[in-house]
Amino acid sequence: MRVDQGHGLLLGDCWRRGQATRHVPATVTTPIRPSPARGEPVDATSSTARHATHVLELGTTRAVVSEYAAALRALTVRGTELIEPHDADGPPPLAAGAVLVPWPNRVDGGRWLLSGVEQQLEITEPAAGHAVHGLLMRTRYSRGSCAAASVTLAAPVTPQPGYPFTLDTAVEYELAPDGVVVRHRVRNAGNGPAPVALGTHPYLRIGDVPVRDLTLTVPAGRAFRMDDRFIPTGTYDVTGTDDDLRGGVHVGDGPGHACFTDLAVSGGVVTSSLRAPDGRTLELWQEPAFGYVQMWVTDRFPGPGGETDAVAVEPMTAPPNALRTGEALRWLLPDETWTLTWGLRLAQG
């Protein structure tokens, strides 16, 4: 490896040289030290935390991918920024862009039953008492194949309290002229069936348009009722309610925290979108195996200039609390591999 002294990015043998932006730390002030073992949690304050990004380029499309949580950290198409930026090193703040595996969202109390035996996961959302966003949120992935416009990152899930299973996981980011295609692979590397669900957590934007002025469309016929700890208690038909986003609603006027299902498929995919007043539209498409969309609006996203508004639109294969309820869990047989695809694309107005 080498340090690009002009741009302050750590480059591997096949990394694309790119101009640094505010998405990536712009200076290197410490010497390179041996990296900790990949696939293990790493101290976010260490020097290695600042050097774990991959810059991808394809024409006017540019992305930055972090090895921490395999997070999509930046995406720009034709000069338009499509991902909320942050300056944090190491694991992404508020799960920004992270891969959520082997479950997305929450497990109530971190408890679930496996063959009648209660399992207790580590509580990672102490205020509510939940286990949240899977087991690889603080993991630094290892780099697999890479090219100028693509990179594959991989990390194992190993047996631990509350999840006694072994998985091999990988995610590939591949640029397209109008955005990015993301492919996930999960393989059961253990000796028995393993329960799996997967999600991602991108915070979306369209350039400098205020987030609350964007129009959000989600093609969902049903939404989940949530209790005060954001655990589902059932679903309801959204027709005629403020949670019907099929016709589009301003982010500032819509629900602040919701999970949707009964998603309409068109052209083989489910497509949610954000539209700017000038007509530019960011589409998030997902294969039907992603049968759920979680959305969250916050005014506390840690942007480069301080806390700011942001909206997360999250494709998920299962709803919150799936380990406990069993809803939409995929039980992988030994050596079985599950492949899932979603992506982002910018359409001009």
TrEMBL record:
InterPro entries: Aldose_1/G6P_1-epimerase, Gal_mutarotase_sf_dom, GH-type_carb-bd, YihR-like
Disordered: region residues: 29-48
SUPFAM superfamilies, sorted: Galactose mutarotase-like
GO terms of molecular function: carbohydrate binding; isomerase activity
One annotated GO biological process: carbohydrate metabolic process
Highest taxon of the lineage: Bacteria
Pfam families linked: Aldose_epim
Protein's recorded name: Aldose epimerase
The organism's taxonomic lineage, starting at the top: Bacteria, Bacillati, Actinomycetota, Actinomycetes, Jiangellales
